[in-house]
Design goal:
The structure is a single chain. It is built from 12 helices and 9 strands. By secondary structure, it is of the alpha+beta class. The strands form 2 sheets. Strands 1, 2, 3, 4, 5, 6 and 7 form a 7-stranded mixed sheet that branches. The longest helix is centred in the middle third of the chain and has 37 residues. It is globular and about 80 Å long.
Length: 399
């Protein structure tokens, strides 16, 4: 493995950081999360037009840049550093890979170039608080019971005149209130022959009701969607293996999420180190006290270890041949990154003193990002437990 980044990858990082430093400061961030959409549309347009960010990991035949998971993870590290209010995660990391993997030729040709150009946003709607289970990060359900199942619960799909209709409710959809296209996981086939398929639902479809939810992490907006016999289009064909596609997506999504968390952890640690170097107590900077140095040094080591794990997970997901530990690299990297972010943010709040507890200071946003992501994609102990099960760590020899 060559751990060095290419010149092009370093240029992605530098260009994106420069743009976000200019257009995504604390004031711009707060203004964006207070909008109905919860993100800055002008910033999203700039990221798409100047950098091609939504199509960074899409092939050139689909209007994308032709990059890999590694480039997308580097981009997510920078957006995480700034807590950038954009639909990048929902659109480019979760929805677009499913369209690429399962979509028909017509679906890919009609949707992916629009996503790559920034003209179309999308979201993945998974019933219940089960996104981590659907992505096989905290378990591997080969029957898709996380989607509800049976004759009631979750989202149900049935054939209708001229196509399909979906019925049900999903309470936690990242950018679900504003996305122009929804990729909805739904049960079909009735109770006896129930299976999970993915369906495309337009944001303006008849029978669709959407509302933004109050979330712990305001920089990661979520919506509740209600579907009442909403016209839908089957993604791919009935033979498409939606569960396997979601499980494969889990590894790449975890690598990007881990990189995003590492970017946020690194930034809040930088801010804390800068602050304790300026704040004085007893006539000397707070950062000169040995106890403070030790706490920050421990947090720094944890962040750097998480960064290495995130980079390896991204490399393993992008490798043409299965890399050692690739099956568990994403889950383990995400667990380590979430812990590092939580630790760095907690130290930031403590070492900023009184100002660290105020609403006006942005350090609490980083702590909420750590807690919110663990609720959505964890918890950490389940991420690690699933990785241990997948690696057969606790199985006895010969069993």
């Amino acid at each position: 493995m060559d751990a060095r980044f290419t010149d092009e990858q370093e240029e992605i990082r530098r260009t994106l950081r420069d743009l976000l430093d200019k257009r995504c400061g604390p004031q711009e961030l707060r203004a964006a999360v207070d909008t109905p959409a919860g993100h800055d549309r002008a910033l999203w347009t700039a990221l798409a037009g100047h950098l091609g960010l939504p199509g960074l990991a899409l092939p050139e035949t689909c209007g994308g840049v032709g990059g890999t998971v590694t480039e997308m993870a580097l981009a997510c590290e920078e957006t995480g550093r700034a807590l950038a209010p954009t639909p990048l995660l929902a659109t480019a990391v979760l929805a677009a890979p499913l369209l690429l993997a399962l979509g028909t030729g017509a679906q890919r040709a009609g949707l992916l170039p629009r996503i790559a150009s920034g003209g179309l946003t999308a979201a993945l709607a998974v019933p219940g608080p089960a996104l981590a289970a659907a992505l096989a990060l905290t378990g591997h359900d080969r029957r898709g019971q996380w989607a509800g199942g049976g004759r009631a619960g979750g989202v149900q799909a049935r054939r209708a005149e001229g196509g399909w209709q979906v019925y049900g409710q999903v309470d936690q959809v990242l950018d679900g209130h504003s996305a122009e296209l929804l990729v909805v996981a739904a049960h079909t086939g009735g109770f006896a022959r129930s299976r999970v398929l993915l369906f495309l639902v337009r944001g303006d479809a008849a029978g669709l009701t959407r509302v933004r939810q109050t979330a712990l992490d305001a920089t990661r907006p979520q919506g509740r969607i209600q579907l009442r016999d909403v016209p839908a289009e089957l993604l791919g064909g009935e033979a498409a293996d939606a569960l396997s596609a979601l499980a494969r997506l889990g590894g790449t999504a975890a690598a990007c999420l881990a990189a995003e968390a590492v970017g946020a952890a690194g930034r809040v640690l930088e801010r804390t180190v800068e602050y304790v170097g300026q704040r004085e107590q007893f006539g000397r900077p707070v950062g000169s006290f040995q106890a403070v140095k030790h706490r920050l040094a421990d947090a720094y080591v944890q962040v750097q270890a998480a960064r290495s794990a995130a980079y390896y997970a991204a490399w393993a997901a992008a490798a043409p041949a299965p890399a050692p530990g690739a099956e568990t690299a994403g889950s383990l990297a995400l667990a380590q990154a979430l812990e590092a972010l939580r630790r760095a943010a907690a130290e930031g709040i403590q070492l900023h003193g009184g100002i660290g507890f105020t609403w006006e200071h942005e350090v609490h946003l980083y702590f909420k990002r750590a807690a919110g992501d663990e609720l959505l994609f964890g918890p950490v102990h389940r991420l690690r437990a699933h990785a241990a099960d997948a690696a057969h760590v606790f199985e006895e020899a010969g069993t």
